[in-house]
Write a structure and sequence with these properties.
2 copies of one chain form a homodimer. Helices cover 26% and strands 24% of the residues of chain A. By secondary structure, chain A is α/β, with parallel strands linked by helices. Chain A is globular, with a radius of gyration of 21 Å.
C-alpha cells in the first residue's frame, strides 16, 4: 500500500498579478524568493513521505511543460492535462481513476500546488497521521486549518462529533496487543465532518471562531483511492460514467484525445459538493502548521518576515526609507529605493510593475 | 562674423537619480520622453541660427564618447574635455580662447546642456535679438528668465537702468537712413546688469517678484569672443595666463596633455563672479520662453503635461488609477499600474526604480 501525492495545479492566480500571469500562474513562481517555486515547495514538503514516482499532477494543457521543467523526475504519465476547467470533482475523478488503474491499494494525499505552509515538520506529522487514519478503513479525511483570525476570504468546515480513538492503533489494527506507540500522545483529534460553509461575512466568521468548532477549508484531502472512486460512483455517477469511458485508454497514446473529447461533458462541480457533503465517510482533522492559500498580496505580507515598520520585503536590492506596512516583491538584484510609502504593494515581475494600496488588492485582477 | 554655440555639458545631475547617473547624467538622457536627449534638444533649439560646424561642447573627459554619439557631425576639435571641474570661468575661458584662435570675429551663445525651453520660437527670437545686440558693440548679454513664482532654487539677476534703444538699428549701425525693421516692435527691453543675487529665501524671493526688477539667472550668455577674452584678461588674469600657455597647442595632438597638466591650476570660480559682476559691459535681457533648469523631478512635474489629477506621466505603458499629483517616468513599453498614490515620484531607469514623495526630492541624492 503506497502513498501517492496528487498536486492540483490548474489555477490561474489572477489576484497575484503582475507576478502571476495566465502564461505562468502563481504555482509556477518563486513567490517567496526562496529559490523554489510554489509547486516545487509543495512537492518538497512531502520529502521522505512520498516518492517522486508516486506524484501526480493535474493541470491545464498549457502548463504541461512548466510541470515537467519544475518537477523533474516525475513520470510523464502522471501529468494529467485538463483541456478545460471543470472545478475539482472531475479533476479528482480523473486522477483517482488513473491511480486506481496503476495501484488499486494507493493511499492518496490531494494538495493544492500554490499554498504556503510555515512549519513543514508539523505538516509532515499531520500528513503521516492522516495517511495512517485513512489506511485504517474507508475514510475520507480533510485537513481543517485552525483559524487564527475571523478570515472572510476562506470557506469553513464545521466539525461534528469527535471520534473516539484517532491513535496509531487504528492503522495497526492487525497488531493487537502491542503497546500504543509514544507517538499516540502527539496525535491530533479527528472529528466527523458536519458541513461545509461558504466564505462568511465578518460577523459570521467571528461567531465561527468563538465556537471553536470551525476550521478553514484548505482543500487538502486524504483517502484510499478505492474509497473515493466508490464514493464518486455513488454520489457523482455522471462523472464516474465519463471516467469509465476514458479509463480503457489510460497510459496509451489515445488517452489525451479521449480526455479532450469527453472532459468538457463533465459537470462543473467541486469535490466538496459532489462528495464530501454527501458521504458518510468524511472526517476533519484540525491542523496548525501555519497555512495560507497565498491568495492575495496581503496574505503574502502577513506571512513574510517583516521589519520594524511592518514592511515585508522580498528582493535583495530594495532599500526602504520612511515607509511602513508595505509588501514589496522585486526581482533579485534589482536596485530599488522606496521612500514615504504606507500600506502599499510594490511588485515587479517580468518587467511589469504594480504599485497599489494593500487595501485594494481584491481589485488587482481588474487592472490588467 | 559667424554665430557660434557653446554647450556646457559637465554637470552630473545628482538630484535626478535614478535617471541621471555619474556614468550618464541628465544632459545625455531623453528625460522628457521625446526621442531626443537634453543636449540634443539644446542643439536642436538653435536650428537655422547656428550651424553644427560652429557648435562647441565643454564637458568632462568621461563624456566625450556620449557627446560624439549624440551630436553627430560635430567637429571633434570642438569637444573640449575638462580633466576636472573648475566651475564656469575656466570653462568659458578655455572655449573662448579656442574659438578666438579659429574665428576671432565669432559671436557666441553660451548655454547649459540640460535646460528645458517650452517655446522654441520665442527662444529663437531672443537669441536672434541677443546676437544682434552683442554684435553691435563690446557687450556681454545675459538672458534673465522672467520669474513666474517666488522660486528659491534659482539665483536672481537685478536689472539696472534700461538702455535707450535695443532695436535692430544697433546692429545695422552701418546702414543709417534705412527705416527701422518691423521686427523692432517685437524686441525685448534690455537693461544694464546691476547685480547677481544668490538663491534667496522665500520672503526675499517674494520681494524680488514684487519689484519687477529681478529675473532668474539662467546661465545663458552672449558676447563677441573678443569681448569676453578681453574681459577675462582684465578681471581673471590668473586664468588668462593659463589659457595663454595652453593656446599654442590648440588643434594639435598636444592640446589635451597640456589641458590635463594646467587646467587644475585654475581657480574654482564662476563666470558670474569672475567677470559679470565686475565688468562695465554687462546687460540683461528678460526673456519669457518657458524655461527650467530641470534641476529636480518637481520641475519636470511642473513642466510635463498633466492629466486631470495633476499626474505627469512619461512612458506609454503607464496606467494611473485613483492617483494624483504624481510624477511618473518609466521606460517606453514598460507595463505599469499605479493605484492610490498621491504626490509621489515613480521613476525607473536602467533597471533601477525610485519611489518617493515629491516633497522629499532634494534628498534623492542621499539615497543612492
Amino acid at each position: 500500500m503506497a502513498n501517492h501525492l496528487v498536486i492540483m495545479a490548474g489555477g490561474i492566480g489572477s489576484r497575484f498579478w503582475p507576478m502571476s500571469t495566465p502564461q505562468c500562474p502563481k504555482q509556477f513562481l518563486d513567490i517567496m524568493g526562496t529559490g523554489r517555486t510554489m509547486i516545487q515547495q509543495t512537492f518538497d514538503r512531502f520529502g521522505g513521505l512520498i516518492d517522486i514516482e508516486h506524484v501526480w499532477v493535474v493541470t491545464s494543457k498549457n502548463f504541461a511543460e512548466l510541470v515537467r521543467e519544475q518537477l523533474q523526475g516525475i513520470n510523464p504519465q502522471h501529468i494529467l492535462l485538463e483541456p478545460c476547467m471543470r472545478n475539482t470533482a472531475p479533476c479528482v475523478a480523473y486522477v483517482s481513476w488513473k491511480i486506481q488503474a496503476e495501484d488499486p491499494e494507493a493511499a492518496v494525499f490531494v494538495a493544492a500546488s500554490d499554498h504556503l505552509v510555515i512549519s513543514p515538520r508539523e505538516f509532515q506529522r499531520c500528513v503521516a497521521q492522516g495517511l495512517d487514519f485513512v489506511c485504517g478503513g474507508d475514510r475520507i479525511l480533510t485537513l481543517g486549518m485552525q483559524p487564527t483570525r475571523p478570515e472572510t476570504g476562506y470557506g469553513y468546515i464545521e466539525q461534528g462529533e469527535r471520534i473516539a480513538d484517532p491513535t496509531l492503533e487504528t492503522h495497526d489494527a492487525g497488531k493487537k496487543g502491542r503497546r500504543p506507540s509514544a507517538f499516540a500522545s502527539l496525535l491530533s483529534p479527528i472529528y466527523k465532518l458536519a458541513s461545509f460553509r461558504e466564505k462568511p461575512d465578518l460577523k459570521t466568521a467571528e461567531e465561527y471562531l468563538e465556537t471553536g468548532r470551525y476550521t478553514w477549508n484548505s482543500g487538502m484531502f486524504l483517502w484510499q483511492v478505492s474509497t473515493i472512486v466508490s464514493e464518486l460512483r455513488q454520489y457523482a455517477p455522471e462523472i464516474a460514467e465519463i471516467m469509465d469511458k476514458i479509463a480503457p485508454t489510460f497510459f496509451t497514446v489515445k488517452e489525451q484525445a479521449m480526455v479532450d473529447k469527453l472532459y468538457d461533458t463533465c459537470p462543473k462541480i467541486s469535490i466538496d459538493y459532489a462528495v464530501m457533503e454527501k458521504t458518510q465517510l468524511a472526517y476533519v482533522m484540525p491542523a496548525e502548521f501555519g497555512w495560507s492559500d497565498l491568495g492575495t498580496w496581503g496574505s503574502l505580507h502577513t506571512l513574510t518576515p517583516q521589519d520594524d515598520d511592518r514592511n515585508a520585503v522580498i528582493g535583495d536590492g530594495v532599500k526602504m526609507i520612511e515607509s511602513e506596512g508595505c509588501m514589496v516583491r522585486m526581482p533579485q538584484g534589482k536596485q530599488v529605493v522606496i521612500q514615504g510609502m504606507k500600506d502599499m504593494i510594490v511588485s515587479e515581475h517580468n518587467g511589469t510593475l504594480l504599485i497599489c494600496q494593500l487595501s485594494e488588492e481584491q481589485r488587482i485582477k481588474e487592472w490588467h
